[in-house]
Amino acid sequence: MEPGPTPGIRIEPATRERIAASLDAHWGGIVVTPERVYRAADLRGAFVVSEGREVALVTWARDGDIGEVVTLDAFDQGRGFGRAALAFAEAELAREGATEARLFTTNDNVRAIGIYLRAGWRVVRIHLDAMDAVRARKPTVPLTGDHGLALRDMWEFVKPL
Question: Of 3.40.50.1000, 3.90.600.10, 3.40.630.30, 3.40.50.720, which CATH number belongs to 10-160?
Fold first, then answer.
Protein backbone atom coordinates (compact mmCIF):
# COMPACT_ATOMS: atom_id res chain seq x y z
CA MET A 1 0.00 0.00 0.00
CA GLU A 2 1.30 3.45 -0.87
CA PRO A 3 1.79 6.00 1.90
CA GLY A 4 -0.79 8.72 2.36
CA PRO A 5 -0.25 12.33 1.40
CA THR A 6 2.61 14.19 3.00
CA PRO A 7 1.60 15.93 6.24
CA GLY A 8 1.62 19.71 6.19
CA ILE A 9 0.08 20.21 2.77
CA ARG A 10 -2.70 22.65 2.09
CA ILE A 11 -5.13 23.15 -0.77
CA GLU A 12 -5.51 26.56 -2.40
CA PRO A 13 -8.03 27.53 -5.09
CA ALA A 14 -6.64 28.11 -8.58
CA THR A 15 -7.79 31.19 -10.47
CA ARG A 16 -8.91 30.92 -14.10
CA GLU A 17 -5.73 32.79 -15.07
CA ARG A 18 -3.54 30.22 -13.29
CA ILE A 19 -5.53 27.36 -14.80
CA ALA A 20 -5.07 28.94 -18.25
CA ALA A 21 -1.32 29.29 -17.66
CA SER A 22 -1.09 25.62 -16.65
CA LEU A 23 -3.09 24.49 -19.68
CA ASP A 24 -0.77 26.51 -21.90
CA ALA A 25 2.37 25.14 -20.23
CA HIS A 26 1.39 21.47 -19.86
CA TRP A 27 -1.57 20.74 -22.13
CA GLY A 28 -1.15 22.81 -25.30
CA GLY A 29 -3.84 25.30 -24.20
CA ILE A 30 -6.77 22.88 -24.32
CA VAL A 31 -7.69 19.42 -23.07
CA VAL A 32 -9.29 17.11 -25.63
CA THR A 33 -11.27 14.09 -24.41
CA PRO A 34 -13.28 11.66 -26.52
CA GLU A 35 -16.39 13.69 -25.68
CA ARG A 36 -15.39 17.35 -25.53
CA VAL A 37 -12.75 20.03 -25.58
CA TYR A 38 -12.02 21.91 -22.35
CA ARG A 39 -10.63 25.41 -22.04
CA ALA A 40 -9.66 27.21 -18.84
CA ALA A 41 -13.02 29.01 -18.71
CA ASP A 42 -14.73 25.59 -18.37
CA LEU A 43 -12.75 24.52 -15.32
CA ARG A 44 -12.40 24.98 -11.59
CA GLY A 45 -9.20 23.93 -9.90
CA ALA A 46 -6.97 23.80 -6.87
CA PHE A 47 -3.28 23.65 -6.08
CA VAL A 48 -1.70 21.40 -3.50
CA VAL A 49 0.92 23.46 -1.66
CA SER A 50 3.75 22.03 0.43
CA GLU A 51 6.55 24.00 2.06
CA GLY A 52 5.40 27.11 0.23
CA ARG A 53 5.58 25.48 -3.23
CA GLU A 54 2.76 24.49 -5.57
CA VAL A 55 3.36 20.76 -5.96
CA ALA A 56 0.19 19.63 -7.78
CA LEU A 57 -2.75 21.07 -9.69
CA VAL A 58 -6.09 19.42 -10.31
CA THR A 59 -8.93 20.78 -12.46
CA TRP A 60 -12.50 19.61 -12.77
CA ALA A 61 -15.86 20.36 -14.35
CA ARG A 62 -19.41 19.23 -13.65
CA ASP A 63 -22.37 18.63 -15.93
CA GLY A 64 -25.44 17.72 -13.87
CA ASP A 65 -24.82 14.60 -11.80
CA ILE A 66 -21.57 13.80 -13.59
CA GLY A 67 -18.26 15.38 -12.61
CA GLU A 68 -15.04 15.09 -14.51
CA VAL A 69 -11.48 15.36 -13.30
CA VAL A 70 -10.02 17.06 -16.36
CA THR A 71 -6.35 17.48 -15.47
CA LEU A 72 -4.11 16.23 -12.69
CA ASP A 73 -0.51 17.38 -12.64
CA ALA A 74 1.81 16.37 -9.80
CA PHE A 75 4.91 18.51 -10.19
CA ASP A 76 6.72 16.58 -7.46
CA GLN A 77 5.89 12.89 -7.93
CA GLY A 78 5.94 10.01 -5.50
CA ARG A 79 5.03 11.99 -2.37
CA GLY A 80 1.23 11.69 -2.43
CA PHE A 81 0.54 15.17 -3.80
CA GLY A 82 -1.34 13.88 -6.85
CA ARG A 83 -3.45 11.58 -4.67
CA ALA A 84 -4.27 14.51 -2.37
CA ALA A 85 -5.29 16.64 -5.36
CA LEU A 86 -7.45 13.83 -6.76
CA ALA A 87 -9.19 13.27 -3.40
CA PHE A 88 -9.86 17.01 -3.12
CA ALA A 89 -11.43 17.15 -6.60
CA GLU A 90 -13.61 14.13 -5.77
CA ALA A 91 -14.81 15.80 -2.56
CA GLU A 92 -15.51 19.09 -4.34
CA LEU A 93 -17.48 17.39 -7.10
CA ALA A 94 -19.56 15.52 -4.51
CA ARG A 95 -20.12 18.78 -2.59
CA GLU A 96 -21.28 20.40 -5.85
CA GLY A 97 -23.86 17.64 -6.34
CA ALA A 98 -22.14 15.14 -8.63
CA THR A 99 -22.96 11.51 -7.87
CA GLU A 100 -20.32 10.07 -10.19
CA ALA A 101 -16.94 11.26 -11.38
CA ARG A 102 -15.03 10.29 -14.46
CA LEU A 103 -11.65 10.95 -15.95
CA PHE A 104 -9.69 10.07 -19.05
CA THR A 105 -6.02 9.22 -19.38
CA THR A 106 -3.80 7.94 -22.13
CA ASN A 107 -2.67 4.33 -22.46
CA ASP A 108 0.94 5.25 -21.67
CA ASN A 109 0.17 6.89 -18.30
CA VAL A 110 0.97 3.72 -16.36
CA ARG A 111 1.83 5.42 -13.06
CA ALA A 112 -1.45 7.37 -12.98
CA ILE A 113 -3.48 4.32 -14.00
CA GLY A 114 -2.20 2.52 -10.89
CA ILE A 115 -3.03 5.50 -8.69
CA TYR A 116 -6.56 5.70 -10.06
CA LEU A 117 -7.19 1.99 -9.57
CA ARG A 118 -5.89 2.08 -5.98
CA ALA A 119 -8.13 5.11 -5.29
CA GLY A 120 -11.26 3.14 -6.23
CA TRP A 121 -11.68 4.25 -9.84
CA ARG A 122 -12.73 1.64 -12.41
CA VAL A 123 -11.94 1.37 -16.09
CA VAL A 124 -15.25 1.42 -17.95
CA ARG A 125 -14.17 2.00 -21.53
CA ILE A 126 -11.11 2.14 -23.71
CA HIS A 127 -11.46 4.61 -26.55
CA LEU A 128 -9.33 2.95 -29.21
CA ASP A 129 -7.28 5.31 -31.39
CA ALA A 130 -8.72 8.37 -29.58
CA MET A 131 -5.35 10.09 -29.77
CA ASP A 132 -5.82 10.51 -33.54
CA ALA A 133 -8.68 12.93 -32.78
CA VAL A 134 -6.51 14.70 -30.21
CA ARG A 135 -3.71 15.10 -32.77
CA ALA A 136 -6.20 16.56 -35.25
CA ARG A 137 -6.69 19.43 -32.75
CA LYS A 138 -3.17 19.42 -31.33
CA PRO A 139 -0.69 18.27 -34.01
CA THR A 140 2.29 18.51 -31.65
CA VAL A 141 1.11 15.52 -29.58
CA PRO A 142 3.77 12.83 -30.15
CA LEU A 143 3.17 9.33 -31.49
CA THR A 144 5.16 7.79 -28.64
CA GLY A 145 4.47 8.48 -24.97
CA ASP A 146 5.89 7.47 -21.61
CA HIS A 147 7.90 4.23 -21.38
CA GLY A 148 8.28 4.18 -25.17
CA LEU A 149 4.64 3.15 -25.57
CA ALA A 150 2.68 4.07 -28.69
CA LEU A 151 0.34 6.90 -27.67
CA ARG A 152 -2.95 5.66 -29.17
CA ASP A 153 -5.85 5.15 -26.81
CA MET A 154 -7.69 6.87 -23.97
CA TRP A 155 -8.86 4.97 -20.94
CA GLU A 156 -12.07 6.15 -19.29
CA PHE A 157 -12.43 5.70 -15.52
CA VAL A 158 -15.46 6.28 -13.28
CA LYS A 159 -16.00 6.43 -9.55
CA PRO A 160 -19.22 6.79 -7.58
CA LEU A 161 -19.11 9.78 -5.24
Answer: 3.40.630.30
